[in-house]
Prior knowledge:
This protein has 429 residues and is α/β, with parallel strands linked by helices. 38% of the residues lie in helices and 20% in strands. Helix 1 (16-35) packs antiparallel against helix 4, helix 4 packs across helix 10 and helix 7 (204-218) packs antiparallel against helix 8. The radius of gyration is 27 Å and the shape is globular.
Amino acid sequence: MALKKKPVNGMKDILPREMAVRDYVTRIITDTYNSFGFTHIETPVVEEIENLTSKQGGENEKLIFKILKRGEKLDVSGAESEADIVDYGLRYDLTLPLSRFYSNNENDLPQPFKALQMGPVFRADRPQRGRYRQFTQCDIDILGEPSNLAETELILATATTLANIGFSGFEIHISDRRLLHTLVFSCGFPDESFDDICVILDKMDKIGLEGVAQELREKDFDGACVDRLSDIFTGLSKDSEGLKVLSKKLGEEAAGPVNNLLTIMKNVDASKTADFTLVFDPTLVRGMGYYTGTIFEIIMPEFGAACGGGGRYDGLIGRFTGKDTPACGFSIGFERIVLLLLERDMKIPGEHTQKAYLIEKGCSDDQLTEILKKADAGRKAGHRVLVTRMNKNRKFQKEKLSAEGYEEITEVFKGSPSEGVSQIINQRY
């Protein structure tokens, strides 16, 4: 039986064109974040299953790729539960592994610690545009900084990175989980309903305020509570003024998170150099269970959905050490950013000229040596040079090379003098 040549569902092969864009984006991300003082680290893709299922990852904990025990430890026939046959899992994000990393290496790290981490993560999710089961995440985190300087730096660094990649006019939505709690409970909803209400509130951009109110009533929530919620959101603007109005409606309990958000928004707007808008969004939820304060999300008009996000998670490291540590992070949606660039058919800025030499079968060793010397000289001059054998279908071969970005294609025929080779320059097929 023939082996299956297609990749596993939800995962993909990456062709040279996309790989070039990914490498370019990676370079910009690394260089920009390094300039803000973030240090590159790496963690394993495999984590203890107890860590991954600690009720910190929200719905993502249902999407873990679990790893069976190996060798004699795997006793399927004697297993009474999944725990008897599973001990590890593939990470579903980079935040939990970073928290374990910091807990294990805190004494060897500077304080506060500014981490940059890029790598593959895995979720058994339903594949769709810009969403895969294996995908690259790109995170920056500041650990050990309790003030909102952390949020301010994360937002500025991320926005600058996106601007350096070539994006403008995007939005970063911001809110605070504490404010969301106060809002929901001030309406009189029961404590245990918080998560269910958040799921519905998160749909506000799609179904509007009336749609949210209707869905809450369909879930048999008290009508007076729903009316109170509708009253709070009616006419509420998504800016600092809207935040101040919300503060008046919610009273003293909202003062802490409101002042926190106002300070962040003021400092970011006064310091930013990238073309983006910081938007207060009271319906912003974020799905992870570890968020404790400020949360944010990147919205790209071209994509129509989140292209990154993050927030403060002051309690997660304490799950490993027994001592809470201030922590805040921001993740760029790497796969969606690359998708948008490919759809733009972007040309990588500053990309070296690409040259190709097609050598006809039967060319002499002297001819080949001369071409190899020319190729070496071209590489030393900063060009990308390919030396390859000429195919029978030269036209198709040149079309493929041209599509890959080769601007100069030289054909070297058997017995032809070096000055007499046929050269095709800047021709697109």
